[in-house]
Model the fold of this input.
Amino acid sequence: MRLAPLCAALTLCAAFSAHAASNVALLGTASQSSYWGSENDYTRASNAIDGNTDGDYYHKSIQHTNSDAALPAGNGFAWWQVALDQDYLIDSITIWNRTDCCTARLREFTVSIFDDDALVWSGSYAEADGPLPSTSFAGIAAVGHTVFVQLDRQDYLHMAEVQVFAGPIPEPQTYALMLAGLALVGAVARRRAA
Done:
């Protein structure tokens, strides 16, 4: 009997967390600073959101830029972005590297989330070699609709896949209900400890 409120609150929290489980990048539109050679089946920005994590360039599943593409804002480092189909509550981002060669090119890069033109979250990868096969940024909890990846130095940018795990933005009532459930869990825990 005393466990019923605790179970109800935990069920609510689990349901809320489970909402942020789908890869919403698949619904987005990708673009990038340039194309290696020219835009073709081997270099398209959309290859990084095709649902295929295969990192072999010759399987036509990676995106690929030139090494000298200039960002209009001016630092000249290669970039890629996905404009999501709507605002989402983003939980985590996983970036899959090219694996048939050149893995070190995807090192020293920044991942940013924008809502309209406002930066709402940023994370960096600064290892000596690129991720093999992937790296993840977890626990983000930011609302946005554009995910932007940019090298922090001049080089070619190529990625096999960018996965953006997110869910819809909860209604204020859902937040209130979740917070009430967490408060109830805390009260029950304090009573048990006393």
Summary: Residues 1-18 have pLDDT under 50 and may be disordered.
